[in-house]
Fold:
Amino acid sequence: MGSAIAARPSCGRWLGVGAALALGLIPAGAAAAPVVVLQGLDKVTARVSTMAAPLDTEIDFGTLGIVARACHKAPPEEPPESTAFLEIFEYAPDHPPRDLFIGWMFASSPGLSALEHPVYDVWVLDCRDDQPVEATEDGAPVPTAEPAIEPAQP
Structure:
């Protein structure tokens, strides 16, 4: 699955950072960050996973591929907000990847712009400067600056 990023350049349909700032989607003075911290729920197993997604790098969550294109975090003097532009697609055997979500997600309002999928939920937690990123035993990347967050057990 991870090799699809080379075949999936930026979709070209995303609202650029300048336009997002002008529309107020990104707070003025927000700092760009190279890593998006995401949380995902597998509704079948009730397992919650926390993942770090470096910009322009595909990560896998179940049958989903996730590529973060931008991430901005409000400065400390502003109300807390992290905003990320994500491309989420699904892999199915014998079918090309199918786009499920392309757009901005907001940490403070996960229901405002959400992935609608019968098996998975994905939402933004934070934007971070942490580098490098290493993978846990299940392949989900986590920031190395903090201890790995284990998936919740059902």
Summary: The CA atoms of residues 85 and 103 lie 5 Å apart. Strands lie at 31-32, 35-42, 47-54, 58-61, 64-73, 82-92, 95-106, 120-128, 133-135, 141-143. Residues 1-14, 18-23, 143-152 have pLDDT under 50 and may be disordered. The chain is about 5% helix and 45% strand.
